[in-house]
Structures are given as structure tokens and as C-alpha cells.
Design goal:
Elements (H helix, E strand, L loop, with lengths): L5 E6 L2 E6 L10 H14 L6 E5 L4 E3 L4 H4 L4 H19 L5 E5 L2 E3 L1 H8 L2 E5 L3 E3 L13 H9 L1 H10 L2 E3 H6 L5 E3 L1 H16 L3 H14 L4 H16 L2 H11 L10
Helix pairs in contact: 1-3, 4-5, 5-6, 9-10
The structure holds acetoacetyl-coenzyme A.
Length: 258
């Protein structure tokens, strides 16, 4: 598939997906959403150990495309929300960690897209918010759920009910982003983290992601039992043998992802 609204560069086993719809500040219309779906479900292979998802300096993503939503019937809007939600779920459930490198605006669907990623790193110029109530609608790409699970109900309610935009420092303070860097440093620091993740045992990292994602939707006793199942799964891997042997032999492990 030829992408019109994004690029995907792969270096070794790290993919950088850059949204490029500058005229609309990377707003998510059906075409952008379908390219995002394609890249995560069909283009990127099991070899990828970490993905960086980023935008332009002005905007990570300024939300769902408001002009495209204009005139949608309630039924069409539900289908639009569901299709976006399923695409975001494919990012959330991608086998390797996804880092959102947020440069500028991450509003509405843009904030929700960042929330579907494992880790958010922001530039000092980034701005976050769920401004849907200004439009007479509600977040529809998972924001009411993922923002609440990420920053807790108090802050999530405030952001969603007021529609206020917060800067990167405030987003960091409330736990919405992991770190804040200058715009010049943002990508290099994201790549640095991606390389650290990519250097670890890929199957183990993938199982960690699965344990965190699936466990957070279970009650604690079931979730820790699920962790034990995945712990056992990691023990059947070649990488476990290699990792433990390398430790004992005081050498660097060489992981194959099996
Ligand atoms: N949808 C469609 N077009 C958008 C857009 C969006 N979400 N955000 C920006 N654009 C377009 C603008 O219409 C404008 O296009 P034209 O030049 O053709 O007029 C262009 O991008 C540049 O935008 P501005 O001139 O507005 O730029 P600015 O610097 O003055 O303001 C901004 C930037 C504060 C981000 C402002 O564009 C803005 O408020 N955008 C909308 C943010 C928003 O409400 N997002 C939530 C959308 S709803 C949603 O996401 C629902 C959901 O959960 C599924």
C-alpha cells in the first residue's frame, strides 16, 4: 500500500511512523485511519522490536477530522468511533512497545492515539487535551477510558469536562507523559529509549506488554495468575536459556526473539 498521509522508516528493528497531513494538523480522517491500520496490522512484521509514532513539530494529531464528522448521522458516527477504536486497539495490542513522540498538539483523537501507545514522550511545545465538549460531542476513540486509566478519574474528569488544554510539564506532572525534552531532543531521546527496549529479549518484552495490557482489565488475583502463565511461557523460550546462561557466564546475551 502506498501511504499518502504517513511515512514508515525501519532501521534495524525499530520502526518510525510519522504522520504527515500538515494541511489539517494531522487530523484523523478515514484515509489516515486506514493507513494507520495498514501499517500496524499488515506492514510491520514480527521482526520489529519497538515503534516510534510521531507527527510534525506543530501537531502530533489535532484530533479526529472535524470537517469529515460534519454531517455524520448518529449511526455513521458510531461506526466512525468503532473503526477508530479498533485501529487504536491494534496499536495497543501490537506485539512490540509503541512510543508516542508527541511534538505539538495532541488533542481529542490525537491525545487518544497517544494514550493507545505504551509510552508517551513529549516535546516542551506539546499540548494535550480532550476538547470534544467544545464541539458538543464526547471523546470517541477511547479517551474516556484510557485517560481515566492513565491519570486516574479525578484528572481525567477535569480534562474531559472542561475541555482544557494542558502543556507538556503539566502532562508530565499528572503522569500522562513519561518525559519532556526540547523539540530538538525529542526524536533522539525516543530512539534512545526504543534502542534500549529493542536490545532486550523481544519475546519477554512482548509478554510483559501482554501481562500489563490484559492484566489491567482483570481483578488482581486473576491478573497475577495470568502473570504466572506468561512467566511460564517465557521459560519455554530460547531467549530465557540464552539470557540466564549469559548472566552465569558473565557475557552479554544475544537474543533471537524465540
Ligand atoms: N479536524 C479537521 N481540520 C483540522 C483539525 C481537526 N481536528 N484541527 C485543525 N484542522 C485544520 C484547520 O481547520 C485548519 O485548516 P484550514 O487552513 O483549511 O482552515 C488547519 O488545520 C490549521 O488549523 P488552525 O488554523 O486552526 O491552526 P491554529 O494554530 O490556529 O490552531 C488548534 C490549532 C488549536 C489545534 C486548532 O486547529 C484546533 O482547535 N483544532 C481542533 C482541535 C479539536 O477540537 N480536536 C478534537 C476533534 S474531535 C475528536 O477528536 C473526537 C474523537 O475523540 C474521535
Amino acid at each position: 500500500m502506498e501511504y499518502k498521509n504517513l511515512t514508515c522508516e525501519i532501521q534495524e528493528n525499530i520502526a518510525t511512523v510519522t504522520l504527515q497531513r500538515p494541511k489539517a494538523l494531522n487530523a484523523l480522517n478515514q484515509e489516515v485511519l486506514s493507513e494507520l491500520r495498514h501499517v500496524f496490522t499488515e506492514h510491520l512484521t514480527r521482526e520489529i522490536r519497538c515503534v516510534i509514532l510521531t507527527g510534525s513539530e506543530k501537531a502530533f494529531v489535532a484530533g479526529a477530522d472535524i470537517k469529515e464528522m460534519d454531517g455524520m448521522t448518529p449511526l455513521q458516527s458510531r461506526q466512525f468511533a468503532r473503526s477508530g477504536q479498533l485501529i487504536f486497539e491494534s496499536i495497543e495490542n501490537f506485539h512490540a512497545p509503541v512510543i508516542a513522540a508527541v511534538n505539538g498538539y495532541a488533542l481529542g483523537g490525537g491525545c487518544e492515539l497517544a494514550l493507545a501507545c505504551d509510552i508517551r514522550i513529549a516535546s516542551e511545545k506539546a499540548k494535550f487535551g480532550q476538547p470534544e465538549v467544545n464541539l458538543g460531542i464526547i471523546p470517541g476513540f477511547g479517551g474516556t477510558q484510557r485517560l481515566t486509566r492513565t491519570v486516574g478519574p479525578g484528572k481525567a474528569r477535569e480534562l474531559i469536562y472542561t475541555g482544557n488544554t494542558i502543556d507538556a510539564q503539566e502532562a508530565h506532572r499528572i503522569g500522562l507523559v513519561n518525559a519532556v525534552y526540547t523539540p530538538e531532543e525529542l526524536l533522539a531521546k525516543s530512539v534512545e529509549m526504543a534502542k534500549t527496549i529493542a536490545s532486550k529479549a523481544p519475546l519477554a518484552v512482548s509478554l510483559c506488554k501482554k501481562a500489563i495490557n490484559m492484566g489491567s482489565n482483570m481483578d488482581i488475583s486473576r491478573a497475577i495468575e495470568f502473570e504466572a502463565d506468561l512467566f511460564a511461557e517465557s521459560f519455554s523460550s530460547e531467549d530465557r536459556k540464552e539470557g540466564i546462561e549469559a548472566f552465569v557466564q558473565k557475557r552479554k546475551a544475544s537474543f533471537v526473539g524465540k
